[in-house]
Write a structure and sequence with these properties.
By secondary structure, the protein is of the alpha/beta class. Bound molecules: uridine-5'-diphosphate. The site of uridine-5'-diphosphate has 18 residues, from helix 1, helix 8 and helix 9.
């Protein structure tokens, strides 16, 4: 099979931590959705391989049975590589092995050791889109090995994320993008703030709730409840704060609430690889107040599309909230339209894929 840039055939292998549509995969779900949609619009063909129970019906998904993988964020840095019996991760890659000759390129969206390890055993090239910063020694080591053996096949979402892996070899840095037409601009927000994301300790929700308590501006929380105990603790510790959990919403429902907020708060404790929610907020014209840490610090233009605050500083967040009137919401929307559109996303990823195939 020879590759032409006109029409390529991609096999996209999803994350094994959850079926598509459940939110368990975090930002990877939206990223995979948007890259797929844009590649099809550009005339390429693709097949997505994902765990059984995936609910996307507008894109071609082959459902693979098996037990889900434990999320890397919940494990220690020195944790051993583990897989459950009848692992969906192993099953998805066995499927990829069987059908590989029908595709030009396989793209790995999972943050797991196995696909990196398997790379030299495949006949087709594999592009690896790494969705989180460094968390595990075994994974770091195998990523380094693949980067050396297959130059240019590793993609990150931000320079800050890439820096956590300390690669000497060439890598690609690919910001995400969204269909901005799905996010409506709102010029006149209500007196409320938003926090959007997986409810899990690395996301630092308690700091946003503290801001709600200190400013008495109600906080709307949306996202997958991934860590029930963590959430219960926040509810107990901040019983009197004005916050409300609205659940894990569809993009359409989520943006209806988000766009009416004065700002999105991003209070992550880890090096956020990118932060899809930042570009979703900007697309609604909502300024982003974020800790100066990880991907959001490369998305937000301080003082123009939001504020970058010293990491873990609650007074810094409160101060930024008090200056929100200085931000022009149209400028936020324009930033999403120019830098983070589906078209811009497609250009970045198409270039990466073609470069790998040219090797
Ligand atoms: N999200 C959603 N519904 C919600 C809240 C969040 O679909 O109610 C999605 C959001 O669109 C984003 C993802 O959850 O794509 C969170 O991704 P992000 O990159 O911000 O963080 P991650 O979860 O990957 O760490």
């Amino acid at each position: 099979m020879t590759a032409t840039s006109q029409s390529l055939k991609f096999l996209f292998v999803s994350t094994p931590v959850g079926p598509l549509g459940t939110g368990l995969g975090g930002g990877v779900e939206l990223t995979l959705h948007n890259i797929s949609q844009e590649m099809i619009r550009r005339g390429h063909k693709l097949q997505i391989v994902a765990p059984s129970g995936s609910t996307w019906d507008c894109l071609p998904v082959v459902q693979i049975p098996g037990n889900l993988q434990i999320i890397a964020q919940s494990q220690q840095r020195a944790a051993l590589v583990t897989m459950p019996e009848n692992s969906v991760l192993a099953n998805m890659w066995d499927y990829a092995r069987q059908v590989q000759s029908e595709y030009h390129l396989i793209v790995n969206f999972g943050y797991d050791w196995l696909p990196f390890y398997l790379t030299p055993f495949f006949q087709r090239p594999i592009a690896h889109l790494v969705s989180m910063g460094s968390l595990n020694n075994a994974l770091d080591q195998i990523i380094k090995q693949v980067a050396k053996q297959f130059p240019g096949t590793i993609g990150f979402h931000s320079l800050a994320q890439a820096a956590t892996f300390d690669l000497e070899e060439q890598f690609f840095c690919l910001s995400n993008g969204i269909d901005t037409s799905l996010y409506e601009f709102c010029a006149q927000p209500k007196q409320q703030l938003a926090w959007v994301g997986r409810i899990s300790p690395e996301k630092g929700l308690e700091d946003a709730v503290s801001v709600a308590k200190m400013t008495q501006i109600p906080l709307k929380i949306m996202g997958k409840l991934q860590d029930e105990l963590y959430w219960q603790k926040i509810c107990q510790d901040y019983a009197n704060a004005p916050f409300e959990y609205l659940g894990f919403l569809s993009t359409s429902q989520m943006q209806q609430v988000l766009r009416e907020c004065r700002a999105l708060l991003m209070t992550h404790r880890w090096v956020e690889a990118f932060g899809n929610v930042a570009i979703e907020a900007l697309a609604c014209g909502v300024p982003v107040i974020s800790y100066r840490r990880g991907g959001p610090a490369e998305i937000v233009q301080d003082g123009k599309t939001g504020f970058l605050v010293e990491p873990d500083s609650l007074p810094g967040l409160v101060n930024a909230v008090s200056h929100l009137d200085q931000i022009n919401r149209q400028t936020c929307r324009a930033s999403a339209e120019t830098e983070f559109s589906l078209e811009a996303l497609g250009d970045r990823f198409e270039e990466w894929f073609i470069q790998i195939l040219d090797f």
